[in-house]
Amino acid sequence: MFTQKYFERGTDAKCFFRGHGTFGEIQGETERGEGVVFRRTDDYLLQCKYTMDAYGVCTRDDSIQNVSDRPLDLQEIKSRFVFEGGEYQVYTQYCCWQTESRGAWHKLTTAVSVGGASIRTNQNGAPFIALWSEQEQRGVAIHLLPNAAWEIKAERAHTLGKSTKLVVTLGISSYNFNVTLSPGEVLQMPKILCYEFKNKLDMDCYKLHNYLHIHYPRREMPIIYDTWMCCFDHLALENIMPQVDLAAEMGVEYFFIDAGWFGKGKIWSASVGDWSENTVTAFQGRMIEVADRVREKGMKFGLWIEPERAAPDSDSVKMHPEFYIRGDVESDQCFLDFANQEAREWMLGVIDELIERYGIAYIKDDFNANLYFDPYHTAFLQYQAGHKAFMKALRERHPE
User: Is a pLDDT exceeding 70 seen at residue 159?
Assistant: First the structure.
């Protein structure tokens, strides 16, 4: 069903891509090179680059480049897999807080789809789909590594020839997506991992594990103590200091303070986004004493922050409304505009000050809220790229 020979079949670009824009619909004959299938016109260059490892895991990287001398509008761009017809089952997985990893097989009659519309790319759906051929008793697992809001759809289709095929279309969500590519500009589509399996129960997950061990070597994590796991947001010197002493006796290496240390009133949640110590509740301005005690006991001090979110009435939003995106009415939240470099630099400065003041050696960066509408109309492609740049800059400033 799926080997490297898959990419040597099919001559129509629709077998590998789906998209449209000011240039019309993506279609026409493809060409091939070493590890690449591509389609070049006067307007664009589409490339599907692929590799296959020793365990049968295929990595697919697709891109589209504007090769014309004028801007090109792009309303949709996705990757495609086309398989022979037959009777199929499709596996998808739901993912949400307290209801993670709820997966099931569905009989494919017309179409089965899954997607993630939020800036949190695993909200509502896991970016994963599996196919099972009832005739051949084998399947294909397909993982999407999102760089934007995304969608995956498996459907019976009669558009690529006279016989019905199984077509999987996946990539950046088409909702609220209208991107203009400047001459020479490249849009990188989400990376895809896929492999064949014969065990329907675990989908030969050892193949994925082997891939991850090679490309993302396991790190030994330190022993970390989180104050939330003891008493949630009840933070006071008389409550936390004994925990510091006991944690040190237990061999804890990092001791960090979770949510509730910041704000300007009794309800800290109303001040999310204002990352300065609360002088009314919690430690009442004396958190540095906790940090010093942690270090005296031979541990490293950490702090909880949530830089991407802010309450509408926070001082940060009032001071810099141009740095935030207003969420929908239901969420009643504002979101730092990571697509705005000036906003990113400002937040990096805020975190720099916290690290210097408290000697922070560990940050828990929580990501608790969902935003579903991208004002830039890129399905959060610019937002995610900005967030990645933000994290990279933070690590470069503070490699320790």
Answer: no
